[in-house]
């Protein structure tokens, strides 16, 4: 293989370490020989790529560099996430262990919100399109404040749906924060890079989407409430009684409704007086 052809592929010497399977494409080259040279048969390589998992990792690395150069890793991370969401959207498989692990973690945090499920295949060749559709439908629900995408671990081939370029571009442009929990600690898919938060397990995802331990918060409020009520009652008892003119003004208006009405009526215009009667006379009223 000519060096110029090799450099065009973007591969490095580390990619071609011992034991790596490759797929080579090219053609035969035959030299018939001459008076001073022997015939020679060679296979000239014009294209080279890694096979199996190595090929997928190389493709993943190239796509990760491309999306990073386009700045698609930042939009989700700039979205604000609710500290205590009331409604969460979840994309996962209906019968997977990730679903039960996520629910168990939310139950331990005593969260009492609403979950909107969007079940989708998470492994076959149709998975990427189905996951993208589920994410878009959840983002269209006005009440959903955060989205979680989760599944269990596996090989890079099993998780390849979460490295789909179209899916990752969809996630990057979402107006709703998305939390990714795909695979285990050692797995790293492309959706983890574009998501707002990358979690290692479904349990970790539940703790990230609901950062507040609701049970502990309720216990704290229960302890503080009696003290708050006691301080309020103590402040009311310690308020000083009115003195001087304030006390006399207060006692003056401690009258029954009927008495107060009669006193105010006697200060007004005499009954039956017309508009030409002139100023109101107070001659019929004497202070008590």
Written description of the protein model:
The protein is of the alpha/beta class and 288 residues long. Among the domains are: 49 residues, no CATH class; 142 residues, Succinyl-CoA synthetase domains (Rossmann fold, 3-Layer(aba) Sandwich). The chain is 39% helix and 16% strand. The strands form two sheets. Strands 4-3-5-6-7 form a five-stranded parallel sheet, with helices on both faces. A two-stranded antiparallel sheet has the order 1-2. The C terminus is likely disordered.
TL;DR?
This protein has helices at 3-9, 53-69, 97-108, 127-139, 165-172, 190-194, 202-209, 214-237, 244-252, 257-266; strands spanning 22-31, 40-50, 87-92, 114-119, 146-151, 178-182, 197-198. Among the domains are: 3-51, no CATH class; 73-214, Succinyl-CoA synthetase domains (Rossmann fold, 3-Layer(aba) Sandwich). The protein is 39% helix and 16% strand.
Fill in the keyword field for this structure.
288 residues, alpha/beta, Rossmann fold, five-stranded parallel beta sheet, two-stranded antiparallel ribbon, 10 helices, 7 strands, 16% strand
